[in-house]
Specification:
- It comes from Clostridium tagluense.
- GO terms for molecular function: ATP binding; sequence-specific DNA binding.
- Residues 142-180 form the PAS domain.
- The chain is an alpha/beta fold.
- α12 (280-292) runs parallel beside α13 and α19 (450-468) crosses α21.
- The protein has a 5-stranded antiparallel β-sheet with strand order 8-7-11-10-9. A 5-stranded parallel β-sheet has the order 13-16-19-12-20. The chain has a 3-stranded mixed β-sheet with strand order 1-2-3.
- The protein has 27 helices and 22 strands.
- Residues 1-7 and 525-537 have low confidence and may be disordered.
- The relative contact order is 0.05.
- The protein has 4 domains: 2-128, CBS-domain (Roll); 147-237, PAS domain (Beta-Lactamase); 270-444, P-loop containing nucleotide triphosphate hydrolases (Rossmann fold, 3-Layer(aba) Sandwich), CATH 3.40.50; 451-599, Helicase, Ruva Protein, domain 3.
- The two termini are 86 Å apart.
């Protein structure tokens, strides 16, 4: 009965074919109408059609017993005026309860005091039986179209219901499992535990069959005396999710191991002990950096391009003990209209082209770590104002958002420009300068560190040789004085590039004078005497070889091929195209000049 009552209203099940009589009509007229319509009652109404009472066959039986009553009398005198009514929009359950509570077999249905129909016990019973199949079909259709697999077992574990999602999930057809013991198909089924202890289980993981992972809930069903009569199980397939989760866990572990290895590599390459130098200014810079590394003070590193400002910044970060990331931002390499979104981040829809869900800025990414702002002198004035605000209160606002994000980010700035001149020209804010320059570290150019050049060169030779997988057996000692006497406009970065060129152009593990760039040879004090301790015969031989056309062509050809290969990353097909050679010819020349081994 509950199912029908849940779905139906009085309006849907009431009988609209009812008999009504006016209050002034006689008992005989009311009886004749009842007989003609085969009804057990008539509804008595006033002249306006409003319900006054109900006159039933039972009332006629009472009249017959009293012989003093005439059937010509008005029916209203013997009508039951204490009438219980119900609204047409009420539920069938409410109608049933009213009839039971008042001990009546009929219930007039009214709307605005006007009679619209009658509910009888037969109406409720007949409606239920006539439409119960429709209800079950509806329920089955709903359950069969649920994404979850639904199984209903009796108290003895016999499967009574198995929906289509269950068939798809487990590959077991309903006709094969219905009426069978659930444990025969799924020995590990969680539903069996609930059958045993009667306890409800919600969203528990399980593996009913090997390789099939589900999240399921089991609900025990009890009758009105508390006896377990059935258990309902709903299962959701999470096999793909679990498999992906396991794969992600493996990949996450790999990433963690790589991060550990990367941090070890960074720590090894960017510590103060790895900074080479005997020069007094470099030693002072290292000492100052070590002293302030573990403080929260902002640091400004100045020096020409290529003097190692980022190396110092990373070394300070590694020695700081900060657990966050080291994040480098080159202020001159980012377009002016993008630098704010790059440093502070942005929210979804902040501007045309913004990626969905927005993007975290460098400031947030460096929280609990270090943000290295390189070439700070090239930062736009508008951005300087916003950066000053962040440095003052430690709160970052993403572009397009009014919600602030608190960060704990240590700032190290660097520049190769004269900030004092920029401040005079109103191109750099004084208040921002003093924020940055709490501690200022100046790095000298390489030309002022002549005593460090040989040691730096040897360091780079080892590093580059290992990276290029080239064994270096000997170095012409005449190279070192030439390196020391070079102007090094590009500083340490230029020196490292020169060393890389010398190694890739070396033959049979030997670094010779002809591997040096021409401009270093040209700038030497004595172009004819290429190095010290060279005897006269060697000088004479060099003078004679200087005009040997074959050797000149051979040297130019060898160097040109080596440089082209280096520029294309060793790709012989591209190199042959640039050199306008057939690949077979290129291979011949590589073999001829001993360059083939270095490219393999």
């Amino acid at each position: 009965m509950v199912i029908a009552e849940m779905f139906y209203t009085v309006k849907e099940i009431m009988n609209k074919k009812f008999i009504k009589v006016k209050a002034s009509e006689s008992i005989k007229e009311a009886l004749n109408k009842m007989i003609d319509a085969n009804k057990d009652e008539v509804l008595v109404v006033d002249s306006a059609g409003m319900l006054i009472g109900v006159f039933t066959r039972k009332d006629i039986a009472k009249i017959k017993k009293n012989k003093n009553i005439s059937f010509q009398e008005e029916v209203i005198k013997y009508t039951n005026k204490n009438v219980v009514t119900i609204d047409m929009n009420a539920s069938a359950r409410v109608a049933r309860n009213l009839m039971i509570e008042n001990g009546i077999g009929r219930l007039p249905v009214i709307e605005n005091k006007i009679i619209k129909g009658v509910i009888t016990s037969n109406n409720i019973r007949d409606t239920f039986y006539l439409k119960i199949d429709e209800m079950f079909d509806l329920q089955n259709n709903i359950i069969d179209n649920l994404h979850e697999a639904v199984c209903i077992c009796s108290d003895s574990g016999i499967v009574n219901y198995w929906n289509k999602s269950s068939e798809q999930l487990y590959g077991v057809r309903a006709e094969n499992i219905l009426g069978q013991y659930i444990g025969s198909f799924f020995p590990n089924a969680l539903i069996m535990k609930t059958l045993k202890d009667g306890k409800r289980r919600d969203n528990e993981g399980n593996e009913p069959v090997k390789g099939k992972f589900v999240v399921l809930s089991t609900v025990p069903i009890f009758n009105n005396i508390g006896k377990l009569v059935a258990v309902v199980s709903t299962d959701r397939d999470v096999t793909e999710v679990v498999t992906l989760s396991k794969q992600l866990e493996k990949e996450k572990r790999k990433v963690e191991l790589l991060q550990i290895a990367y941090k070890k590599e960074i720590a090894a390459n960017y510590t103060f002990s790895s900074i080479v130098g005997k020069n007094k200014k470099i030693i002072e810079a290292i000492a100052m950096s070590q002293k302030v590394a573990q403080s929260s003070a902002s640091i400004l590193i100045t020096g020409e391009s290529g003097t190692g400002k980022e190396v110092f910044a990373r070394s300070i970060h590694e020695a700081s003990g900060r657990v966050g990331n080291f994040v480098a931002v080159n202020c001159s390499a980012i377009p002016e209209n993008l630098i704010e979104s790059e440093v502070f981040g942005y929210v979804e829809g902040a501007f045309t082209g913004a990626i969905r869900k927005g993007k975290m800025g460098k400031f947030e990414f460096a929280s609990n770590g270090t943000l290295f702002l390189d070439e700070i002198g090239d930062m736009p004035m508008e951005m300087q104002v916003k950066l000053l605000r962040v440095l003052q209160d430690g709160i970052v606002y993403r572009v397009g958002s009014e919600k602030g994000v608190v960060t704990d980010t240590r700032i190290i700035a660097a520049t190769n420009r004269n900030l004092n001149d920029l401040m005079k020209e109103k191109k750099f804010r004084e208040d921002l300068y003093y924020r940055f320059a709490v501690v200022q570290i100046e790095l000298p150019p390489l030309r002022q560190r002549k005593e460090d050049i040989k040691e730096l060169a040897d360091l780079f030779i080892n590093q580059v040789a290992n990276k290029e997988n080239i064994d270096i057996n000997s170095i012409d000692e005449r190279i070192y004085p030439l390196l020391v006497n070079c102007k090094w406009e590009g500083n340490i970065r230029e020196l490292k590039n020169v060393i890389q060129r010398m190694i890739v152009l070396s033959t049979e593990g030997k670094i010779t004078l002809d591997t040096l760039p021409e401009y270093i040879l040209e700038n030497s004090e004595d172009k004819k005497k290429l190095a010290l301790n060279t005897n006269e015969s060697e000088i004479l031989e060099q003078e004679q070889n200087k005009y040997d056309l074959a050797k000149i062509v051979e040297s130019v050809e060898k160097n040109t091929i080596a440089e082209v290969l280096l520029s294309v990353g060793g790709n012989k097909q591209k190199a042959a195209k640039i050199l306008n050679l057939k690949r077979s010819t290129l291979y011949y020349k590589l073999n001829q000049y001993g360059l083939l081994e270095k490219q393999s």
